[in-house]
Amino acid sequence: MTNLILLGPPGSGKGTQSKRLEQKLSVIQLSTGDMLRAEVASGSERGRETKALMDTGAFVPDEMIIGMIASRVDKKDCANGFILDGFPRTVPQAEALGEMLVEKSLKLDYVIELTVDDEAMVERICGRYTCTQCGSGYHESFQKPAKEGVCDTCGGTDFSRRTDDNAETVRARLLAYHEQTAPISTFYGDIGILKQVDGMTAIEEVTRQLENIVS
Ligand code: AMP
User: Fold this and answer.
1) 191-194: long-range contacts (C-beta < 8 A, 24 or more apart)?
2) Which of 37, 39, 171, 173 is the most exposed place for a label (fewest CB within 10 A)?
3) What is the pTM of this model?
């Protein structure tokens, strides 16, 4: 079993790299952002409240996220381990995760931070889009499908963009990251478990470095 956290600001590549590591390690990616977007898509009252927060770049309450993760890691598909993507995002979340893992007799094997340049993140995020059929990610400048308008993976022709991927919200999300999430690096650094990888290099190179750490 392998359990790890990928840390890094919005746009640093946590989602892309989690998907790649999922296959390599036979573990599952747990993205709190994806879980929240599913809640929003369900049209529930909680989803509506959540969308309002997400669209301004603010965080949703710690208790909601912690509860969501606590029940998610008990599912069968986590038996081989998980990659936490987008969680923990605050020091109280990191502390709660620590307690949760002790209670469930699980341990954290790696915490890896993707280090990037903030300014480049705005461009990376504002140009990204996803195949609605299979979820493959693309970028209008850096990673276009081989045939324009057709997904390389599944041949789908319908793509979507996240409503929070606009310049204004991205700046708010980066600010929230620096104020509330960056202290987590120190938290894990202090317990000697933090590794860093340069997230500004090519996608393949970042994957190679992550694989070096986890293999
Ligand atoms: P992401 O997909 O990780 O970029 O997350 C999108 C949005 O979901 C964030 O800007 C937050 O509003 C919310 N969110 C995701 N994960 C968390 C978390 N661990 N704690 C609080 N809010 C979160």
Assistant:
1) 193/108, 193/110, 193/111, 194/7, 194/111, 194/112, 194/113
2) 171
3) 0.94
CA of 113 to the centre of ligand 1 (A): 17
**How does DSSP classify residue 204?**
H
Catalytic-residue membership of 173: yes
Per-residue pLDDT of 6-43, as tens digits, reads 999 999 999 999 999 998 999 999 999 999 999 999 99
Residue 215 has a pLDDT of 85
For 128: left if phi > 0, alpha if psi spans -120 to 50, otherwise beta; the answer is beta
At 212 the pLDDT is 96
Q: Are 47 and 41 in contact (CB under 8 A)?
A: yes
